[in-house]
């Protein structure tokens, strides 16, 4: 019986091999299609794109000396308006191929002297599938790249940062579609560029695809050039140079995730350029914030978008030095990579707007006068209300009043902080208070030694007006940092929910059972933790009555502060259920480490 089965298997394999062989020979011609002008659907400039020969009738020549009789060449025309970012787009949806193949090379005759650098970039619809930097000394590059199933367009780019003696010519030799690689699934994504900008702080401060006012390409921190994305760099006459943004209307789409790469442009990372904060908002919810300096590497970002978000905002906030940075969001796209995030019911005071104040010059929304950004603990922020006395203002009576009679929220939540730029010398005491219809519901004093407070206050039922107030007892003048502080109410919101509901959805870890009464929980991160974020507000355990139980937090500094142990001060009660909560733990680079999580565990009986 065993021999008979084996013989049958052998016969089946023989037939299969025969079929495969016949099929390959029969369809060899149809398994390849050249990428040429017949498939071309669009170009940056027809004078920049060449087939088989350059405009001078000079044939393509790869750097290895091989002549190319079948290729696509990019070399900017004398009067080209897009010389730094040339492309040709090809419609391939009707051709069922899985692979792009070509040999990529600079034109040999233009590889002497200072010709800068050239980046070959390939996109399959909105997904970048290839990128490589070419210089005078680069060889040829033979590529075989999987093309996602269902791709509509392949776009070939030549992105150039020319040198003092001109630029290169870039050749895609024998570009073709084949089926030599296994098919890959197409990622469900939508580019923010496809949606288009809804609003902007100043259109002269931001560019798409390249630095339009300089005719220069975007350059990542690793030196590579890129073509797609939004760059922010203040215009000479900008009124918003410290706080630039673009918004995108996404309410009509049901994506859960924003993906992008954020980088300072490498060309502008020398000298005193201060610091730059990249911030992403989903309506009034901050979903990402990170600071960039000259030495900061590009960051690959993947963040959850809250359910029912109407607008996404890309912010760039700058505290310039002698000069400033240019920062860009490369190819921001919406995807469904992360789980759907929900947020609590809240209303930002900024969306209501204040209705009354003693002196409008004392109250600042988003940044200070003279384009100075708000700064808390060294981090730049984009939203909130700041109080700093005007030349003729009254430092003891600065306020902004908000009418909330149309809403039924029970709490107000904000972070109150002195601006960390102005904490030198004797600046006296600054009092921050919150009033509900004239009744004080919060009041604290801030000094150089006490600068920040996370605030949540209960709003009395029936309240009509909420007032944010600041009173300063500094020197006789009105100059922040010399005579007095500047104080910020960061992102104040009205809410009915708990902090964790307002911030983001928690990922549910698997429930643990039969847990020891003295169980320690060990959590390991792949980068060092910011120890200041390991606090009871961020990491805690509650019992069945939702009360926090005392814990010890142990951080292994010998292991670069990447391991956290949460240990009970007292034994857990047998047979009871507890829940571990973790949120907003940051790395030393300022980025939140992973997702917010919760885990239920049952103690052994």
Characterize the structure shown:
This protein has 605 residues and is mainly beta. 6% of the residues lie in helices and 43% in strands. It is built from four helices and 48 strands. The model is unreliable at 1-29 (pLDDT under 50).
Task: Report the end-to-end length measured between terminal Cα atoms.
Answer: 56 Å
The value of Rg in angstroms is 30 Å
**Class by helix and strand content?**
mainly beta
Low-confidence stretches: 1-29
Question: Helical proportion?
Answer: under 10%
Globular, elongated, flat, extended or rod-shaped: what is the shape? Answer: globular
Strand content: 35-45%
In terms of quaternary structure, what is this? single chain
Q: Average pLDDT value? A: 87
Query: Quick one: biggest sheet?
Result: 6 strands, antiparallel
What is the tally of beta strands?
Answer: 48
- Work out the helix count: 4
Q: Keywords for this structure?
A:
605 residues; mainly beta; six-stranded antiparallel sheet; 4 helices; 48 strands; disordered N terminus
């Amino acid at each position: 019986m065993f021999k008979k089965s084996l013989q049958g298997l052998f016969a089946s394999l023989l037939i299969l091999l025969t079929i495969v062989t016949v099929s390959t020979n029969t369809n060899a011609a149809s398994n390849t299609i050249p990428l040429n002008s017949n498939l071309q659907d669009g170009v940056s400039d027809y004078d920049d794109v060449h087939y088989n020969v350059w405009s001078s009738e000079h044939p393509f020549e790869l750097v290895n000396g091989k002549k190319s009789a079948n290729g696509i060449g990019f070399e900017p025309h004398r009067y080209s308006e897009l010389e730094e970012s040339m492309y040709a787009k090809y419609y391939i949806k009707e051709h069922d191929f899985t692979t792009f193949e070509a040999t990529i090379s600079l034109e040999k005759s233009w590889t002497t002297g200072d010709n800068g650098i050239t980046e070959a970039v390939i996109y399959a619809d909105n997904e970048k599938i290839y990128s490589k930097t070419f210089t005078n000394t680069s060889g040829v590059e033979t590529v075989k790249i999987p093309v996602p199933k269902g791709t509509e367009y392949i776009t070939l780019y030549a992105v150039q940062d020319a040198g003092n003696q001109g630029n290169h010519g870039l050749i895609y030799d024998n570009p073709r579609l084949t089926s030599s690689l296994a098919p890959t699934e197409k990622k469900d994504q939508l580019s923010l560029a496809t949606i288009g900008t809804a609003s902007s702080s100043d259109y002269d401060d931001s560019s798409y695809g390249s630095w339009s006012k300089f005719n220069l390409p975007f350059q990542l921190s690793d030196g590579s050039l890129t073509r797609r994305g939004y760059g922010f760099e203040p215009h000479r006459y900008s009124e918003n140079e410290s706080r630039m943004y673009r918004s995108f209307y996404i309410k009509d789409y049901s994506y859960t995730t924003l993906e992008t790469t954020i980088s300072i442009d490498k060309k502008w990372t020398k000298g005193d350029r201060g610091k730059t904060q990249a911030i992403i908002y989903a309506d009034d919810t901050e979903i990402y914030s990170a600071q960039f300096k000259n030495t900061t590497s590009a960051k690959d970002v993947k963040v959850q978008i809250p359910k029912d978000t109407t607008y996404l905002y890309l912010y760039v906030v700058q505290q310039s030095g002698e000069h400033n940075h240019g920062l860009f969001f490369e190819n921001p796209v919406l995807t469904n990579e992360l789980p759907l995030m929900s947020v609590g019911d809240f209303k930002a005071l900024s969306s209501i707007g204040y209705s009354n104040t003693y002196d409008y010059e004392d109250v600042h929304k988003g940044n200070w006068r003279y384009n100075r950004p708000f700064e808390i603990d060294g981090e730049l922020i984009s939203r909130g209300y700041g109080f700093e006395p005007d030349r003729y203002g009254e430092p003891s009576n600065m306020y902004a009043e908000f009418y909330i009679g149309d809403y039924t929220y029970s709490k107000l939540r904000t972070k109150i902080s002195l601006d960390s730029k102005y904490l030198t010398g004797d600046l006296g005491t600054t009092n921050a208070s919150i009033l509900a219809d004239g009744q004080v519901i919060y009041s604290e004093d801030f000094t150089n030694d006490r600068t920040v407070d996370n605030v949540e206050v209960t709003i009395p039922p029936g309240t009509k007006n909420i007032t944010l107030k600041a009173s300063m007892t500094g020197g006789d003048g009105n100059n922040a940092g010399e005579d007095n502080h500047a104080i910020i109410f960061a992102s104040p919101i009205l809410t009915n929910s708990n902090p964790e509901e307002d911030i983001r959805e928690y990922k549910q870890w698997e429930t643990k059972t039969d847990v020891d009464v003295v169980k320690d929980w060990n959590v390991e991160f792949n980068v060092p933790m910011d120890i200041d974020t390991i606090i009871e507000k961020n990491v805690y355990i509650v019992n069945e009555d939702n009360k926090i139980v005392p814990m010890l937090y142990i951080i292994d500094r010998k292991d670069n502060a990447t391991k956290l142990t949460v240990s009970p001060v007292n034994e857990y009660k047998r047979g009871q259920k507890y829940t571990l909560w973790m949120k907003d733990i940051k790395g030393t680079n300022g980025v939140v480490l992973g997702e917010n999580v919760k885990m239920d565990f049952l103690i052994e009986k």
